[in-house]
Amino acid sequence: MKGYLVLRVIAKLVIPFALLFALYVQFHGDFGPGGGFQAGVIIAAGVIFYALIFGLANARKLVPPRLVEILVALGVVIYGGVGVLGILLGGNYLDYFVLSSDPVHGQERGVFWVEAGVCVTVAGVMLAIFYAFAGRPRRPDPE
Amino acid sequence: MNVVFHFNYWVAMVLLTIGLYIVIARGNLVKKLVGLSIFQTSVYLLYISAGKIIGGTPPIIAEGFTIYSNPLPHVLILTAIVVGVATLALGLALVVRIQEAYGTIEEDEIQRQDEEP
Amino acid sequence: MIAIHFPALQVVVPLLAAPLCVIVRNARAAWLIALAVSWAMLYVATGLLAEALSAGVISYRLGSWAPPWGIEYRVDPVNGLLLVLVSFVGAVVMTFSRASVDHEVPRSQHHLFYAAYLLCLSGLLGIAVTGDAFNIFVFLEISSLATYILIAMGRDRRALTASYQYLIMGTIGATFIVIGIGLLYLMTGTLNLADLAQRVPQVEHTRPVLAALAFLTVGISLKLALFPLHLWLPNAYAYAPSMVTAFVAATATKVAVYLLLRFFFTVFGASFVLEQVQVPAILLVLSLAAMFVASTVAIYQDDLKRMLAYSSVAQIGYITLGVSTASATGLTATLVHLLNHGVTKGALFLLLGCMALRVDRVTIASIRGIGRTMPLTTFGVVLGGFSLIGVPTTVGFVSKWYLVLAALERGWWWLAVLILLSSLLAVVYMWRVVEAAYFKEPAPRARKVTEAPLSMLLPAWALVAACIYFGLDTRLTVGVATQAAQLLMGGTP
Question: What is the ipTM of this complex?
């Protein structure tokens, strides 16, 4: 769809705001609707939008599949790492109370990092699914 | 009336039956996955509608509100939705591979091809 | 110090090792990670079982939230036994896997293959260790999704359709389980299994609870491949990579059986399920049907993996038969057979993996005369077959002995006769293998093959040795199983 000038201009305008909005949703998750899940999907949607307009090859240059693979794994490691940190600091697995001297603040900190992990993995998984399906060589119908 | 009072369960069970029927009755692998998704969605309804209490507010302590809806089913179903998405993605990926290997996604044709050699 | 975190580590270590495999993206490194984690998990599991046997129930609070609000991991002798079985099979299969996976899976996918295996291990261990009903569903799906991937990695294109079929059936099963759990949650307001056990009796004759029992029974039966819900199993086992077949056959259905026991005896209570609702009557009929129909079908299979898959369905019949006798002896038989069949089938599928390395597709035709060229492998298959039949001095004999005891205890002598008769069917299908391997003229390909490498033979023979050892020395298996069975019949988690 590279030939459509309007689409290209609009896409270039919208994508940065989409990514920014994802960050808003991510960090506003403490106070209202939002969180890592939604943020991750919005980030992925931004990249997928880019891929639709500028082509899959360009999107792969922007976010290489190898990076996507690492993102998927990294988010899980962050999430699990927060849990293991709880053990190292003397609590149970996924214990956020010990993450800070103030238990309430500890909860907040724990959830923050967990949400960060969720965001990274969800964005990665969504892109991985998109790449996997979109990147398949299309074959002519047998009929 | 009991039936009307429990209409949310009726909706869930009707969806469940529709989904299961599609899975059983359709030979097209993609349509089967659609049925499977509807089938799973019925469970989301079952959980979430039960978490709502008439007149209840979101579970945030504030003055003047004493009835709260139960947030736990939402959290549970968020997990179930993720599982559903993962299942659907994996199922579709398998269908793509099957299409590449067999050249068809109709169950009876795949069976015929398997029996041939 | 670290030992108090064992319940969490049991699940978390493989869960975190899986993304690590993806990040390192190297076949050898991923294999080493998976191998190290598998053996570490065996160490953790034996530690947990030993502590559960001596100190009673171990409870671990995730995130330090007190149960029943927070998620609780709870280990007692019943699931301790399961943890040891799953991690033991995992460790042995992982040791075996390198040469086999090199042969059957494209090298570029190895790191993902091992990551999926670790996720599957994590899910299975999670189902066993958790004390929270919804958590069970989540782990069930983690392990199932990983299993679908592993099965689809088989070389034959039929692996894809087998995996798809399993995905459909498995998801229906899992969804039924969630519906059951949801109905229980609606009636009691709790998801903690121990808490459910206390609250369910107050509402046990309401219709939603009965519906929950029905949904859970059908859902779990799909997962454990109880006849006639076993249709996904033969193809899935037959076309998956050898290592996957061995691992899944030895663990996945066993964990599902554990779930059935957990819900029947801990949550609903023995008296409710066994006496008031008459579940045993249904189980009895289905188990007998599984034993005879699946064994008979197994006789007519030419593909050895498929034959053993049908034999698995039959053996699952024996496992559920123990439940249907509704006695402590019967439950002991169930638990012992759970372990024994896990070890036996693990051994047999690993040995078939050795053969597959040399002849690719292991069929009655392709293994003709292989007893001369692969003597160790073939002899192992024979010993494993003895165990399936239930020849004395093998583990199969021990569990059938307890089954017959349970039948006689109830005065059902006809059941004892049927158990013995169905064992004869196992003699028939195993004899076909022996006949082909030893008494037929070698197939052109089987004449040239050499014995499988030691890295594969040793783990496979370790499981065969376990079949014999636990057949002679039953103190460990039967001892623990008796204790676990009494715990289940007592109803307290």
Answer: 0.93
